[in-house]
Write a structure and sequence with these properties.
alpha+beta
């Protein structure tokens, strides 16, 4: 099917097996229709057109208002515009930034259709089918169609995507519908993807001499589910045909989709921001008008000081000048003060508060805050910023969710179209995630990478499931993959020899591929044949790295347990030293008491000397014991700092300190004997 831009209608390619040509000779049954069939068809189309207009016209008027505000041309109502005739009437459009915020993520990470096998053995077929759809999307420029339809939904609540084929009838295309008002969908449709609609209709007017003809592009399902289409001008059937499959190739993308009084209401972010935007424009216009109407600052001057310079001072109140002259003395010869401009400040302090309030209203109503648009709000805590970002993402999710639903329906349509449109092709082209094209010969068996068995492929993909996902561009994924591998090599240096070639392969620098190839040749034999995708780590390497990491962790845990045991022992040793010190202090105290008693009893100096000598020996023995305990403590500390070297590829090296105290006692310790005073023997 061909879209005629001049007529803004679909046109069937010549010699198509699916469409009749409008260049065939005019005959009553040119499209296989009798006069009665044509009359019935035209009556049906007009009836459905009237039903759609009755249902959708009021909603389309609201959409026109939304688009007018978004474009900036409809932000002033006719009444408000008339009231400010010959007065400042500013349009400071705040709305596009909210729309761009919602659409930006889809443009940055375009969604794509993916296929998954229902059975394990169909993975190869699912991968090839996904590559085929990716090729169709890429060659069609579908990412622009998806982004445009989403943008229309965010602005007015409704956008469209259409499916078609090329002029030769052998290529499937996904195209955007530029005009969001072009189609009207069956009012009985309720699904978000329009899959339950029985017809779509486009109604335009065409000038024919002095009169206008009603022209219709009509897509509908027949009683048996067959998809048909017709082009009508006035009372004449210009084109009529049957389309492959059971899905009408017109796909709506809704914004917010709600039901009110048994009627569907769709809207985008613009509709709820209308009043806040108009308030902002009005206050800004009033602010400018207030400043413009403020009287110019008058000149205050003494009589005679401006004589001869009046014109230059008058001009100075309107245009800037470099130098102003005045007369320093009046006619009487008296000195006069320099002239001055009187200060005149317009009263507009109220305006910024109202405009800021209007801007805040827009953020609150839309749920999209400055933090969602990249602003750095330093006045908010991290928790508050995250909460607002999440609220903005929730507000955006409604639109992307509806786009995903529509893309799934497009995926179903593509799968239905592949076999009838491409069934006679022996070689198909697919597109990989890296953007590289590949040709698949359907006449030759393909090797399943999982089983290694040959698989014969066909273009029947009914047994595959459809999903939609979005991801960063492949270049971004490569950068992320390279960074992840570099982080692994930094954390586990021993892994570098196994995965350094993959990290190099992901770098977009001259010579990276050659260097990666050379590094790969240095790998063990069992890894050199590994054909891992860029950015992926071989399973053998991952397993080895995990084993080494687990062994290292176990060794470190053993060292920690050993250190805990030693700490307990040292704690007990310190406790014993403390007790020895207390015993020393107690002996000293008892000795002093005994000496005092002997002196008081009149003991001679010899006995006192003997007691003092015995006490000195006991003190030295105590000091010797304490030093020996300190030596043991130092050795234990040295053992803690130098744990036993574990066996295995990974060891932990800790510096050691040697402590070698040298203590020599003066004499062997003797038991301390307390003798009675002489007077008591």
């Amino acid at each position: 099917m061909i879209y005629d831009e001049e007529r803004q209608m679909y046109k069937a390619p010549e010699d198509s097996i699916y469409f009749a040509s409008d260049e065939q000779p005019e005959q009553p049954d040119g499209f296989g229709l009798t006069q009665e069939d044509r009359d019935t068809l035209i009556t049906k189309i007009r009836k459905h057109a009237a039903t759609c207009h009755s249902y959708w016209d009021s909603l389309y008027e609201l959409m026109e208002t939304d688009w007018g505000l978004y474009s900036g041309e409809g932000q002033w109502t006719e009444e408000a515009s008339a009231a400010r005739r010959n007065r400042p009437k500013l349009t400071l459009n705040q709305l596009p930034k909210f729309v761009k915020r919602v659409v930006a993520q889809t443009k940055k990470e375009p969604p794509g259709i993916k296929l998954a096998p229902r059975e394990e053995g169909d993975k190869l077929k699912a991968d090839i089918a996904t590559g085929l759809i990716r090729y169709i999307e890429d060659s069609s420029g579908s990412k622009y169609a998806y982004a445009h339809a989403l943008e229309c939904a965010v602005i007015g609540g409704l956008g469209w995507i259409k499916g078609t084929i090329n002029d030769e009838g052998n290529k499937i295309l996904i195209k955007k519908v530029k005009d969001p008002f072009q189609f009207m969908i069956d009012p009985d449709s309720e699904e978000a993807d329009g899959s339950d609609a029985n017809y779509f209709i486009a109604h335009t007017k065409k000038q024919d001499g002095k009169k206008k003809l009603d022209c219709y592009e009509y897509w509908f399902k027949d009683e048996d589910g067959t998809v048909k289409w017709a082009i009508i001008e006035g009372v004449e059937v210009k084109d009529y045909g049957t389309f492959p499959g059971t899905i009408i190739p017109i796909f709506p993308v809704y914004g917010e989709d709600i039901s009110y009084r048994n009627k569907r209401v769709v809207k985008g972010v613009i509709r709820d921001l209308i009043d806040a935007q108009r308030t902002y424009n009005y206050i800004k216009s009033q602010e400018v008008e207030t400043v413009a109407l403020t009287p110019k600052s008058p000149v205050i001057a003494q009589e005679g000081s401006l004589d001869g310079y009046e014109d230059s001072w008058r001009k100075a109140s309107k245009t800037p000048v470099d130098i102003l002259y005045y007369r320093q003395k009046n006619d009487q010869g008296e000195e006069v003060s320099p002239p001055q401009f009187a200060q005149s400040n317009p009263s507009i302090q109220w305006a910024p508060q109202i405009t800021q309030s209007a801007q805040q209203d827009m953020r609150e109503i839309s749920g999209i805050y400055d933090t969602n648009m990249g602003a750095d709000d330093r006045m908010l805590s991290g928790t508050a910023i995250i909460a607002k970002q999440q609220a903005g993402e929730s507000a955006e999710y409604t639109y992307t969710e509806h786009l995903m639903a529509t893309l799934q329906q497009i995926g179903r349509w593509v799968l239905q179209m592949v076999e009838p449109i491409m069934g006679d092709q022996h070689v198909i082209r697919i597109l990989g995630e890296d953007g590289k094209q590949e040709s698949i010969n359907l006449d030759q068996p393909q090797i399943d990478p999982q089983t290694g068995a040959p698989v014969t492929l066909d273009l029947n993909f009914d047994e595959l499931d459809i999903s939609v996902s979005s991801a960063p561009a492949y270049a971004t994924q490569r950068e992320a993959g390279a960074q992840a591998i570099q982080d692994i090599m930094t954390a586990i240096p021993s892994s570098a020899q196994y995965i350094a070639d993959i990290a190099l392969r992901n770098l977009d620098v001259p010579g990276a591929q050659e260097a990666a190839n050379r590094l790969k040749k240095m790998l063990p034999t069992e890894l050199q044949g590994d054909d891992t995708e860029p950015g992926m780590v071989p399973e053998q390497v991952v397993e080895q790295i995990m084993q080494q990491s687990e062994q290292t962790i176990q060794e470190q845990q053993a060292i920690i347990e050993q250190m805990k045991t030693q700490m307990v022992a040292l704690s007990m040793e310190l406790q014993n030293q403390t007790q020895a010190k207390l015993a020393t202090e107690q002996i000293k105290s008892q000795t002093q008491i005994a000496v005092a008693q002997i002196k008081e009893a009149g003991a001679d100096q010899r006995k006192i000397a003997d007691i003092e000598a015995d006490t000195e020996a006991d003190n030295k023995q105590i000091i010797f014991d304490a030093q020996k305990a300190n030596q043991s403590f130092a050795l234990e500390v040295a053992k803690m700092q130098k744990p036993e070297t574990p066996k295995g590829p990974n060891t932990v090296s800790i510096s050691t300190t040697t402590v070698n105290p040298q203590v020599t006692p003066t004499r062997a310790p003797e038991p301390m004997v307390f003798k009675q005073p002489i007077g008591e023997q």
